[in-house]
Amino acid sequence: MANRSLSRLAQWCSRVFMVEINQKTEPIYFALSSKPSAHNIELEALFGSGKLFSVYALCDDRVQSARAHAELKNALAENLPPGCALLDSASFLPDIKSSLIKGFFLQDNSALSSAERAVTQLQEKGPVRLCVLTYTREENGEYLCSTVAEEPAERERKYYVTPAPAPQRHPSTLNIINSDVFYQMEDAYKVLQECCDIIPESKAVLELVMEQQLEFNNSHDKRFPVIVIEGLDATGKTTLTCSLQKALGAVLLKSPPQCLACFRQRFDAEPPLIRRAFYALGNYITAAQIARESSHAPVVVDRYWHSTAAYAIATAVSGREENLPAVGSEIYEWPSDLLRPSLVLLLSVSPEERLRRLTHRGLDKTEEESQLEINHLFRRKVDEAYKKIQNPACIVVDASPSPEQVLQQVLCLIKNKYNLQTPDHQ
Ligand SMILES: Nc1ncnc2c1ncn2[C@@H]1O[C@H](COP(=O)(O)OP(=O)(O)OP(=O)(O)O)[C@@H](O)[C@H]1O
Ligand SMILES: Nc1ccn([C@@H]2O[C@H](COP(=O)(O)O)[C@@H](O)[C@H]2O)c(=O)n1
Asked: Per the database record, which ranges form the Thymidylate kinase-like domain (predicted)?
């Protein structure tokens, strides 16, 4: 369904709405119906007594849509009067892939109930079309939904808000494929092609990808081992990869590769669709470098596809780690056309030790505390996602001992278990 058709209220009736109060609790689900429903405590708590709205930025184009959603969030945060709460919300077709549309749920408890005026002003400013659903409470306690639509017939239309059951699959997982994680170079490539007009740097990135691909196609078959080191920040990847480079006489590579370093900040500022496509393409450039270098020496890689997928999945999947799809889900599969390493090692340290290392590296106390509090849930999701990725799966390494001990542990794994140190041993 093209997003624009959702400007008609009737189109929303086949969909379910999810409102996330916070990341720790279950979301609240509701639907629109022509019939009233029994009294529901959860809905009562969500809807309360103030004025309520759902706001969606509607575009047919996926790049525009992703950017419009991010811009809408900033604009609402800046323009809403004090007393308003802005909650992440989405609408979806239960368990149907790619059906999720992200938006916001707005509780207006401001002194003058002026959120509607602020939203109308944003609507008038354009250029993106906003769909605004308004909820009102009847005297009998029922909640009704209507649209702030241009056509009078649409404005007259009203539906009851009714509770909906939680779907089997968490809605935030529905759009991951080709919006957050890309399983073929072509799919990530297309996203950046679609961005060329609005982000001129995309062209330069695509040229670098194509240059490396030509070289990749001419490179020799891989002969030496390719060892990827993964892990959350400050788990010791840089320290270990440098020591491994010396110990194995290896070539050290990174993903994203050095040639993309100057573009990173630019793409980090973009919404997930664009940002993740950039990192996905970085892996293909690194893959071409791996293919070239592994013909004459072992290769050690600091982050690769596990990082790209694990961070993307953990960011896309809202709420708790239980919402991540189970092992075996297609979202954890390795891209069909991306060079596979010989071994992937995931460095793991306790949250306390990681924080100690971050602090040692120069974080101040306040930032340290906020890292621990706010990101705890996110880090657990990244860690879980790392461990669920398959073909190749990663081997978890306890990285809490001293750097020398971690190095010896890893060398042991490489030499004994995989017998990979020299080309003769393969
Ligand atoms: N085994 C270890 N024991 C104690 N401290 C360590 C160990 N390994 C690394 N460190 C220290 O922890 C900090 C983070 O290490 P490092 O930079 O290697 O991590 P990283 O995973 O590469 O981080 P990032 O992903 O953020 O670049 C550094 O100050 C480093 O000296
Ligand atoms: N292969 C990669 C590497 C990194 N990312 C993204 O970058 C962030 C971590 O990078 P550091 O420089 O802090 O190590 C992380 O948020 C990932 O989103 C990636 O996607 N793929």
From this structure: 229-409
